[in-house]
Specification:
Distance between the termini of chain B: 14 Å
Low-confidence stretches of chain B: 1-5
Radius of gyration of chain A: 25 Å
Number of helices of chain B: 15
Mean pLDDT of chain A: 86
Structural class of chain B: mainly alpha
Strand content of chain A: 15-25%
Distance between the termini of chain A: 58 Å
Largest interface: A-B, 59 and 73 residues
Shape of chain A: elongated
Structural class of chain A: alpha/beta
CATH architecture of the largest domain in chain A: 3-Layer(aba) Sandwich
Number of domains of chain A: 2
Order of helices and strands of chain B: HHHHHHHHHHHHHHH
Helix content of chain A: 40-55%
Helix content of chain B: over 70%
Largest sheet of chain A: 6 strands, parallel
CATH superfamily of the largest domain in chain A: Response regulator
Strand order of the largest sheet of chain A: 2-1-3-4-5-13
Radius of gyration of chain B: 22 Å
Number of helices of chain A: 10
Oligomer: heterodimer
Strand content of chain B: under 5%
Low-confidence stretches of chain A: 1-18, 20-44
């Protein structure tokens, strides 16, 4: 039957023509309004930046890109945020290609994969587009805006804890994430070193691992608090661990005020514990500042104020002056501390 | 339905073959999809800034090449009424084998052969489970989809092999001499021609359609149903793993998640191209045109600065629209034929 042409294949033909016409209308409808924007962009092609986050719909990158947009507005740059909905290694490639074709002055990118985007980022650089990596470094960029160094994070957490414990010091425990997580282990090692060096009054009783799993982290927090009677504080340099340590404290009011918990957390997850007073302070970096700094670095590259060489300096609006470090890295700054006064301002 | 040639309805039906070739071509789904591509390109050239550049076309092909390659054998599988959802994972598995063996000191070409043979074996595994064991291909290939993605990610862990020889990497994305088209275009065209000849001009290909229409009838007509399906699954595994080698070199990156989710893009392109998911109907040209239409749509919307969420919506809407149109016109066709035969039986 399927091999014969029925009378109604004419119908199918008509329907097919309708399909074509409808998709054409759909497209023109979509395309027309933005066509004008791109036209305007022509005049100041180098005065435009495209920010490519790891994916759209991620609150962390919504915050960083909000900061990037704010800086672009201050600088008079045309700002575009474009990115994939998935985080596949090559999913960002089409957006890099578009940025090249539309003659952007700079691409600001948090690469999902440091290698897969390189062909196209290199093509961008040879087409005169400056490349700023933020959040995650790539193999081919002009500068990398690093949100935190190992020492910066470790120092920040130790300072918070030392300030709380005061001169008489006390006993603390560290509740980390995965035992094999390289970044977490680097932070734990750095904290241990700083405490040994600068804070003889503080003793680290134990390092436990929550393995990035809610229940495990909760049980480990419980184990630490119950097994170490004179425990004064827990540092949890991992978002799951600090959330679950706070969760355990919230469930056991008898320990509230006895054991003090801090660490690296997400404001959206920690806000309830801050509001209820279980936790006073925790740290992370401010993603809005990260995006803000990335836009200023892009502008400095476009203007030729910096080339990405070590020792180059540039002004980054309200954040002040920054210096490009070794390997083209720009460090955002010390750890950002969240407390009751600011935790509600962040949605990530 | 058993009307003889003297039946007026049947006679009218056969008369349609007397129509000029151009009219017959005009009424095909493939023609509509190709017309949509042409129209889209005309509109995009006129309204989207920067679209009319060779770079647009070269990147369009580069970005969609893995999908265009893998959809070629999968189209034949879908025409038999089966499906192969494991191709994205075969790509990832092949990428992992290729990268790991190269990193372990195996020469590049031998590493590529290992990876492609590995993909062929996965295809054989799929094919044996479907034909010898008699399991549904949907279940089998969802199983191998998960299985080989897991193995690929497990083999490489968080590691990525990226240090391939620069001249090979450059060759993978180099243009065909004197044109903006990347070298992979040649591979796509050669494969399409080879598979189109196999599908449309050989007894094997007619067997593929016959299996899709009715496996029992095909078997009674002398088509070796299981052998045909087995060959197609092996071909699909080979092409998907060869695509894995290409993809690894295209992005200079062997990681376990390469090709994640590609199977659905492959099936989307094929169905958009007018191939029936129930089997028995469709052409390779249509499936390829479906893939190119999605690629062109993506490129146009990206260049117009439209977000990827909207692009996803447009692709989905286009697919549903095309399936609904095909289904509605199919059911009208069946109803009319039913009436015609009832009328002739009554007379």
């Amino acid at each position: 039957m399927k091999f014969t042409f029925s009378k109604t294949s004419r119908k199918r033909g008509v329907a097919a023509v309708v399909t074509v016409a409808a998709s054409a209308m759909l497209l023109t409808g979509c395309v027309a309004p933005t066509g004008d924007d791109s036209g305007d962009g022509d005049a100041s092609a180098s005065g435009s930046i495209t920010v490519i986050p790891k994916s759209l719909g991620n609150k962390y990158f919504e915050a960083s890109d909000k900061g990037a947009a704010a800086a672009a507005a201050e600088l008079g740059l045309t700002f575009t945020e474009a990115g994939p909905t998935a985080t596949g290694s090559a999913d960002q490639v089409p957006f890099i290609q578009t940025a090249i074709q539309t003659g952007q002055g700079a691409i600001v990118i948090a690469a999902n994969d440091p290698a897969a985007v390189c062909n196209d980022l290199t093509a961008a650089q040879s087409a005169g587009v400056k490349v700023v990596a933020y959040d995650t470094d790539t193999d081919c960029r002009d500068v990398f805006i690093n949100q935190a160094t190992v020492d910066g994070i470790a120092q920040g957490l130790v300072d918070l804890t030392a300030a709380h414990l005061g001169a008489e010091g006390g006993t603390i425990a560290i509740l980390s994430g995965g035992a094999n997580a390289a970044n977490l282990n680097a932070w734990v090692d750095a904290m241990t070193a700083i405490i040994e060096e600068d804070h003889p009054e503080i003793t680290i009783a134990k390092v436990a691992y929550g393995d990035d799993i809610d229940e495990k982290a909760y049980q480990e927090a419980q184990g630490l608090i119950q097994s170490i009677p004179d425990l004064d504080a827990i540092i949890a340099p991992d978002t799951v661990s600090v959330k679950e340590a706070a969760h355990y404290l919230a469930d056991t009011p008898e320990y509230q005020g006895e054991v003090w918990v801090t660490g690296l957390g997400l404001p959206s997850e920690m806000v309830e514990y801050i509001d209820s007073g279980v936790i006073e302070q925790f740290g992370l970096w401010n993603p809005e500042d990260l995006g803000y700094l990335a836009s200023y670095a892009a502008q400095a590259l476009i203007n030729g104020d910096i080339t990405g060489a070590e020792g180059d300096t540039f002004e980054a609006g309200t954040l002040g002056e920054y210096t490009v470090g070794a390997g083209g890295e720009v460090v955002l700054g010390p750890m950002f501390v969240f407390d009751a006064s600011n935790v509600g301002d962040f949605s990530f | 339905m058993s009307a003889v040639m003297t039946d007026p309805a049947a006679a009218a039906k056969y008369q349609r073959y007397g129509r000029p070739l151009w009219r017959r071509l005009l009424l095909r789904t493939e023609t509509a999809i190709i017309a949509a591509i042409v129209l889209l390109i005309i509109i995009a050239t006129a309204t989207v800034p920067y679209f009319a550049q060779p770079y647009t076309y070269s990147t369009m092909i580069l970005n969609s090449a893995p999908i265009l390659l893998m959809l070629i054998p999968v189209t034949l599988i879908i025409i038999t009424g089966e499906i192969d959802l494991s191709v994205g994972s075969v790509l990832g598995f092949s990428s992992a084998i290729f990268g790991l063996s190269y990193a372990a000191g195996v020469p590049l070409s031998l590493a590529a052969v290992l990876a492609i043979v590995g993909g062929g074996l996965i295809g054989l595994f799929n094919g044996v489970l479907v034909t010898v064991v008699g399991l549904p291909s949907l279940a089998v290939t969802i199983g191998t989809l998960a299985l080989f993605r897991g193995i690929a990610v497990g083999l490489l862990g968080t590691r990525a092999v990226t240090d391939f020889p620069q001249e090979v990497l450059s060759f993978a994305i180099s243009p065909v001499f004197g044109s903006p088209l990347p070298i992979v275009t040649v591979a796509i065209l050669v494969l399409v021609v080879a598979f189109a000849v196999l599908l449309h001009f050989t007894p094997f290909g007619r067997g593929v359609f016959a299996i899709g229409l009715s496996p029992e009838a095909a078997a009674f007509s002398g088509v070796r149903v299981n052998r045909t399906k087995l060959i197609l699954f092996v071909l699909s595994g080979l092409v998907a793993s060869a695509t894995g080698v290409y993809y690894t070199l295209q992005y200079s990156n062997a990681i376990g998640t390469n090709g994640f989710g590609f199977e659905l893009q492959v099936v989307t392109a094929i169905v958009l191209g007018g191939v029936s998911i129930w089997g028995g109907r469709g052409t390779l040209l249509g499936a390829l045109a479906g893939g190119v239409l999605i690629a062109a749509l993506n490129k146009t919307l990206q260049l117009a600065g439209i977000g990827s969420d909207t692009i996803s919506i447009v692709t989905g809407a286009a697919l549903i629209f095309s399936v609904v149109v095909a289904s509605v016109s199919g059911s009208i066709s069946r109803r009319r034929r039913g009436k015609a035969s009832a009328a002739s039986a009554g007379a």
